[in-house]
Amino acid sequence: MSYKDRLSGLNRTPEHPVTEQIVTIFRDAIASGELSADEKLPPTRALAELAAVNHLTAARAYRRLAELGLVNSRVGSGTFVRGTGAVARRSAREPARTDEERRGSTAWQHFALPQLEGAYVDSILVDLFAGAEGRHDLIPLMTGYPSGRVFPAELLAELTDEAMSKHGPSAWQYAPADGVLAFREAIAELGRADGLEDGPERVVVTNGARQALTLVARAVTRPGDVIACESPSFAGVLRAIRSAGAEVLGVPVDDDGLDVDALEQLLARREIRMLALQPRIQNPTGRDLSLERRERLAELAVRHGFFVVEDAIYSPLRFEGVDHGALRPLAPDHTIYIHSLSKVLSPGLRAGWVVASGPVLERIAQEKRTDDMTCATLPQLVTAEFLTGGHYERQVAGAIALHRTRHDAMAEAIDEHLSDLVEVVHRPLGGGHFWLRVRESLDERLLYGEAVQHGVNFVPGGATMPGRGDGTLMRVSFSFLDPEELREGVRRLGAAIRSLASSERPLRSSLPLA
């Protein structure tokens, strides 16, 4: 019986996991020679149809085969049997391969590399991209970066010419790892509006806010340390923390931001090295940390001696509410401030920075020098021209107007198409996202797969949390898409939720976290 015939006759009982059956069938076909080295396997969608499974199950099976070293994926081409798969098949009857044959095989790396600790966030993100592969008709409600309509392209072109004219060959030369002085001076001046009193000597320029988070996590923590963060949070925060080898503990978020009572209970049980949060326009909830909680958080940081990492990246994109400024002035020796212009100017400029004081500043600068002995000079000179030329306030006002229009379009679409299916957990005060809870508890991975089948996607709640969430949660974003695309995307999402909720497939709450 061929492997395709076996795939069409899978055992559907609970004692026999479908994914493992698929893996076993392919493994046997490779070992027997039915599938030869470098032979292309069916695309995930074709496999899903052949085995009568969800396409995410097919993607998981291929990922497991890759982990076993039996197949590899080639971007844009598909999944292929590894050349080394033939070795296991031949070894009993053929001599070992020659040195010439061994060259070009990467199988040895599976044994040479250290064990990679799996994380639910990482695995679900892999599924996200695998599920959307090749879907050009997909409406990406998961995309949280800004629309190109935000970018002042003509102005940036003019400022580039000015920077090159003013600085000459030095615009193309190496720059200090902590950043071009003119840019750091402009950043320090920009910080005055947030209540910061730090000079340029306390600024380290980074390749966006994501690198800033990684540098701070490495500078502050060591493997085995405990770091707390908001739950839900930005997936990049979770990955940055885990990259430093730290244990991540989540602190709940509500309408008033981080639950400081829950943080205090955590501090009674565990010593934490750092807390990462977005106190203004949090991603994904769009809420602020209340004044009372800000003061209590600063007191806790001083009393317990941990660092607060304040990510302000969405703070300029406020539609309503009062902006209380940066958290850092309340406890400047304990607070590390991170910001970027990616959401209001251009993510491609990679204009991010860290502000800190004391020994931790030098540690962060040292980590930056470890990553980059220098930095991109011209983009920093252009951004400095932008900030010192009086363009920032006008640019932010335009970005807010665009985001507000798209927020309103998505809010109307949610009311029209999803009001009986989801609830808006927190009404956003700004930013680029809605945080939703599905009224009926569904498996978030199955729901994501169903959504892709309907031509839309989203960020599952599990990708934003260090621990298991309560119910089926999702982040849908409005910053990237035009209003008509948002309306259609939300309509498709509603159709996907109804389809899965009414199906006869067994439904579960979110999968256990790895």
Explain what this protein looks like in three dimensions.
- Mean pLDDT is about 90; it is low at about 85-95 and about 505-514.
- The longest helix has 26 residues, at about 390-415.
- About 45% of the residues lie in helices and about 15% in strands.
- It is of the alpha/beta class and about 525 residues long.
- It has helices at about 5, 20-30, 45-50, 55-65, 85-90, 100, 110, 120-130, 155-165, 180-190, 210-220, 235-245, 260-270, 290-305, 360-370, 375-390, 390-415, 445-455, 485-500, and strands spanning about 70-75, 80, 140, 205, 225-230, 245-255, 255-260, 275, 305-310, 335-340, 350-355, 420-425, 435-440, 455, 460, 470-475.
- The protein has three domains: about 5-115, Winged helix-like DNA-binding domain superfamily/Winged helix DNA-binding domain (Arc Repressor Mutant, subunit A, Orthogonal Bundle); about 120-150 and about 395-500, Aspartate Aminotransferase, domain 1; about 170-390, Type I PLP-dependent aspartate aminotransferase-like (Major domain) (Aspartate Aminotransferase, domain 2), CATH 3.40.640.
- The chain is globular.
- The strands form four sheets. The chain has an eight-stranded mixed β-sheet, with helices on both faces. Strands 12-13-16-15 form a four-stranded antiparallel β-sheet, covered by helices on one side. A two-stranded antiparallel ribbon has the order 1-2.
Concise synopsis of the structure shown:
With 514 residues, this protein is α/β, with parallel strands linked by helices.
Secondary-structure blueprint:
Layout: H1 3-7, H2 18-32, H3 44-51, H4 55-67, E1 71-74, E2 78-81, H5 85-90, H6 99-102, H7 109-112, H8 120-131, E3 139-140, H9 153-167, H10 181-191, E4 203-207, H11 208-220, E5 226-231, H12 235-243, E6 247-254, E7 257-258, H13 260-269, E8 274-277, H14 291-304, E9 307-311, E10 335-340, E11 351-355, H15 359-371, H16 377-388, H17 392-417, E12 422-426, E13 433-438, H18 444-453, E14 456-457, E15 459-460, E16 472-477, H19 483-502
Parallel strand pairs: 3-14, 5-6, 5-8, 8-9, 9-10
Antiparallel strand pairs: 1-2, 4-11, 6-7, 10-11, 12-13, 13-16, 15-16
